[in-house]
Structures are given as C-alpha cells and as structure tokens.
C-alpha cells in the first residue's frame, strides 16, 4: 500500500512540474514578438564576448544579475547610457521573464544595434536552469522575483520581493 501511494505521489508531482512548465512556455509564447530573436541559456552564442544588458530596475539588479551584466534599467533606460557600446557588439537583453527586455531590445535595434537578442525566459529561466547569478559580493542564490504573482515562475533560488 505504501508503494502504491509513493507511485501516485511521484506521478502527481511529475504532472504538476510538467503542467507548470507547459503553462510557463505558454505564457512566454504570448509575451514574445515572433520577429524578435531569442537566445536560450544553453546557446553556444553566450560566450564571454557577449554583453548582457539587465533591463530590470536597479533594486532587482542589486539583488542579483548575470555575471558582468550592465544595468540599463527599463523605466529609466536611455540610449545615452550605452553610447559607448559598438553597434556590432553581440548583446543579450534580459529582465525577469523577457517582456521588458524585448521592448528595450527593440529600441536598441531601432538605434542601429545589429546583434541584439532577448534571453528566453529571462533571469527566471536562467536560474531555473541552474545557471549562476551574482551580487556585489559574488555568487548568490537570491533572485528578485518581481512580485508574488510573477514569483511562481521562479522554481529555484531564494526569492526576494
């Protein structure tokens, strides 16, 4: 009987994880513009030469960010802040899930930046895939979850609100 309940628990847990994953993918599909290029955390394009631009607000960036990312913000974003970046530089924009970063990416493209990609799933997917994030002291498990509503999509790391 214990074995039966254990099997049921495993099946239920697997269905919950699969269901959440499907819901997350569906959410992202609805957020992304099909014309704007995505890059995935496991993509080989993500070398040391790629410049990550964090389009979240400064309070989110300070909790954690992708290593060596440059903060550019969303509400306060300005092209002047990135004027020193060459127009042919490989740039990956990201935010929590990819909605804000896509908008900033479009502004970069309109300004003549040629190689701009949106990070699929944003920092949430990055962390959920087991990739590291950093704060001013080094590697951390803390991730700004934006809000309790959006935080449900962050399954790894220590959520900060």
TrEMBL record:
All residue ranges annotated as the Rhodanese domain in the record: 46-135
Pfam families registered for this protein in UniProt: Rhodanese (PF00581)
Ranges in a coiled coil: none
Top-level taxon in the UniProt lineage: Bacteria
SMART domains reported in the protein's UniProt record: RHOD
Record InterPro entries: GlpE_sulfurtransferase, Rhodanese-like_dom, Rhodanese-like_dom_sf
Record-given protein name: Rhodanese-like domain protein
Organism: Indibacter alkaliphilus (strain CCUG 57479 / KCTC 22604 / LW1)
């Amino acid at each position: 009987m214990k074995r039966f309940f254990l099997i049921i628990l495993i099946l239920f847990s697997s269905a919950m994880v699969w269901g959440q994953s499907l819901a997350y993918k569906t959410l992202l599909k609805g957020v992304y513009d099909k014309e704007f290029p995505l890059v995935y955390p496991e993509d080989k394009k993500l070398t040391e030469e790629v410049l990550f631009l964090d389009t979240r607000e400064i309070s989110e960036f300070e909790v954690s960010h992708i290593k060596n990312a440059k903060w550019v913000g969303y509400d306060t974003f300005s092209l002047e802040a990135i004027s020193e970046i060459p127009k042919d530089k490989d740039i990956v924009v990201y935010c929590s899930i990819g909605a804000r970063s896509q908008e900033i990416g479009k502004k970069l493209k309109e300004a003549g930046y040629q190689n701009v990609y949106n990070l699929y799933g944003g920092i949430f997917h990055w962390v959920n895939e087991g990739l590291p994030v950093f704060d001013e002291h080094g590697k951390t498990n803390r991730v700004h979850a934006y809000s309790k509503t959006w935080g449900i999509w962050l399954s790894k790391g220590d959520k900060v609100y």
